[in-house]
Amino acid sequence: MDLELRHLRVLCAIADSGSVSRAAAVLGYSQPAMSTQLQRIEQFFGVALFERNACGVEATRRGVEVLTQARDVLARADAIGRCPALESMGGLRRLRLAATNSPVLPGMVARLRSLMPEDALKVGSVYAVSEIVELLEQGELDAAIGVDYPGRELRHAATVGHRGIATEPTFVAVPARHRLRHRAEVALADFAEEAWFVTPDDGVGWPGVFYAACAEAGFTPAAVHEYLGEQLQLQYMIADGLGVAVVQAATRPIPGVLVKPLTGTPLWCRYLLAWRRENVTDALAEVLFSSAAASYRDLIAKAPHFQTWTSRG
């Protein structure tokens, strides 16, 4: 077998999602086909690149080495022809981009602004992913960053395409003086009597997945504060001991806040790029995706709690 770019994308998808089945869903493979593909790739290298555990799969030491090189190769490949794709904009005068509550957006926009003509990018914020889908289907947006959850994958009309950027575990943010501050990871049930800050319905599964995970852990949250506002303000309230909150793995905590992995990883979230097919060419979609993926990699590299989680066991 000759090693191809598609094989490298398979490896990165498995690493990003932490699961062969989730990677298959992201790339549009069946799970058996994805498993067969991984076996062939590992035969090419002559060693196992992933090992299974209770939470899915993790890269072996050799796997980490291969993934590091694979991401570099893919980034270079994605950069080929990037500028012409942006200059033509697929016939668009302006790209209308929106995002839900996603830390991926700033880094993505910074990359796009360095490549696109001046004033060619219009950025907006839309909280509910279901509303993002409607705006794309109605032609009022060209592309967007959204989220969905394993088992509740995003649904939309055929006029819209989407591609998973990364599937990550959901962590919990607690005050730095919290009674569990010395634990490397914490159980969801440890917070049964705590006050929770929970963001509103996003139209694609949240906060249902949170309450389902709590029920599975054997409790109903004692107190819930619905919060939709700046993440910095949320962290200030957590630092003051007013409650705890589930947060994205790429969250950068302020002084006074700790971010902890959850035992058993009961909650997952997938970042994704969605676009209106008639407005965004395949080449432009590839540029948008690679910019978002690079932004995510930068965020994760600066999140020590995530690095600790990936290296455990």
Describe this protein's structure.
By secondary structure, this protein is α/β, with parallel strands linked by helices. It has 3 domains: 5-79, Orthogonal Bundle (Arc Repressor Mutant, subunit A), CATH 1.10.10; 86-165 and 271-307, Periplasmic binding protein-like II (D-Maltodextrin-Binding Protein, domain 2); 168-268, D-Maltodextrin-Binding Protein, domain 2. The protein has 11 helices and 11 strands. The strands form 3 sheets. Strands 3, 4, 5, 6, 9, 10 and 11 form a 7-stranded mixed beta sheet that branches. A hairpin with a 2-residue loop joins strand 1 (50-53) and strand 2. Helix 1 crosses helix 2 and helix 2 (20-27) packs across helix 3. It is globular, with a radius of gyration of 20 Å. The two termini are 32 Å apart. The model has no long low-confidence stretch (mean pLDDT 88).
Outline the fold blueprint:
Elements: H1 5-17, H2 20-27, H3 31-45, E1 50-53, E2 56-59, H4 61-79, H5 82-88, E3 95-99, H6 104-113, E4 121-125, H7 129-137, E5 143-148, E6 160-175, E7 195-198, H8 208-216, E8 223-226, H9 231-239, E9 245-248, E10 257-260, E11 268-276, H10 282-301, H11 304-311
Parallel strand pairs: 3-4, 3-5, 7-8
Antiparallel strand pairs: 1-2, 5-11, 6-9, 6-10, 6-11
Helix pairs in contact: 1-2, 1-4, 2-3, 6-10
Instruction: List the helices and strands in order.
Output: HHHEEHHEHEHEEEHEHEEEHH
Report the strand count.
Answer: 11
In total, the number of domains comes to 3
Helical coverage, percent range: 40-55%
Low-confidence stretches: none
- The CATH first-level class of the largest domain comes to Alpha Beta
Task: Name the average pLDDT.
Answer: 88
Total number of helical segments? Answer: 11
- What's the N-to-C terminus distance? 32 Å
Give the CATH H-level superfamily of the largest domain: Periplasmic binding protein-like II
